[in-house]
Request: fold
Amino acid sequence: MRLKRRGAPPAELACDSCGQVPEPPKARLTAANIAAMLPIELAVHAAVVQAHLPYVLKVALLTVTATVLAIWVAEPSASKLLHRWLHAPLLHRRGRIEAAPALWRVRTVVQDQPGALERVTHALSCLDANILSINVHPVDGGVLDELVLAAPAGLTERDLLDALEAGSGRGSRAWRTTPVALADGQTHALGLAARVAGNPDELPHAVAALLSASYLGDPSAAARELPADGTVLKIPSAVRGVLLFSRPGEPFTPAESARAHRLAELAETLELQRPSGTAAAG
Reply:
């Protein structure tokens, strides 16, 4: 979408980076220009037609005058006076987006006992946060609950963390997310497994997508000192050596590690079943 500054555009549409706004729809811009130019054109034609000038001079004068007025008067005036009408569709869409609930992904560790999740959900309900999906991961000292929330637009990360703490959550984290987080996890995992089955070389990228992690890429990184906070996952592979994945600030759970290892086993099985000639060619 082209960006163009015209007159005094609505501040609500200004880009946070460049301060410009998208160009209004062509149909609305054309209608505004016609409305601004028509009175001017009529006045100029009336004045020139009444003048006693040669025909060629009249045509040239009308052409130059109409062009100058269109560029320097009509279009800027229309953009300035009718800017809210010109940008009405975008303003309406921006208003709907800003009024829509914000999506958050949160993780918190609770005790593995009855009522623990209920306390968390009650604390979140006090913020008018709606739980859209939940995944439970067994971890040392309890269970890690991963939730996707639809919360009021004005809610902050601090508000969510305070609510989780009030609900007896520990080690809580919160991130803004997108509707992609609502995709069915099993379907997503099966799709990645099919991707690895079609091409075992896709294993590192499939695991990174499965865990929302970064693939460190260099197998020699295994020799480096790695953090002991669980944010780096090592997956041994008889074919590719050690694969390292990193997710700073979000330790991997045993369930996530198991899923990644199953993908690695699938890739290894398919790799070993390749004909030797095919493997060599690959």
Summary: Confidence is low (pLDDT under 50) at residues 1-9, 277-282. DSSP finds ten helices and seven strands in the chain.
